[in-house]
Amino acid sequence: MNSASKWTTRTLAAALAIALPVAGPGCGAGNDRWVVTENTAVDIDWDEVAKAYREAEGPEDLERRVNEIYAGDEVISIAVKDTDANNQVVTGFFDNNENGTAEDAEKIFSIDRQLKTADQANYAIAGHGPYAGYHSPVWDIAAGMMLGSMMSRMFMPGYTPMYTTPYSTPAGRRGDLMTQRNSWRQANPEKHQAARSKSGRSYGRKGGGFGGGGSTPAPRTPSRGGGRFGSRKAPRHAVTKLAV
Length: 244
Known about the structure:
Shape: globular
Structural class: alpha+beta
Number of strands: 8
Helix content: 25-40%
Radius of gyration: 24 Å
Order of helices and strands: HHHHEEEEEEHEHHE
Strand content: 15-25%
Distance between the termini: 95 Å
């Protein structure tokens, strides 16, 4: 190799040594958390999650509703636990290791529901993981509202918590949820496309990006009549009407 060729080789090597460290952040390193965390391009409509919990007939119905709301590819599993006679915690999570447990690294959101009196309760939603900045307002609920049996049964005389033994989405059900959701998306393409994030930098399209100040409280619509309470096999879209 002549001296001119050696000089050219050394010059190119030096240029590459300088250029490579500069290119790194643009390829996803750096401090931009949105580049390195999973699922951040997917918004969650928190008002719709709140509505799904209000109207769900049980954990299986809530799973279906939440997965229709979520516009990503992953399946959201649900864990439900009555921590005592007055408090219930619902957790949405990606069951990546398929062990049926909502581990901290897998959590997406949690819903805390508290029975205050025989006729009054409240609940709130908090985001986890890539959605950790979201905290909803505290929504009030009352006997006489239009509620699904998962929530409304707590207002019934002689109420006994159903999920002191926690419920968690079985790993084998995740395939069924994905199949059902795919069918729903094909039948409702306009709703699915509308739910998809355009920027990948929002914690949620509704309910406020970091505090939930824009969320709409649950409507307090009185109703009359009876219904089924606590059934895990109630119709998917049925709504329980409580007597005033």
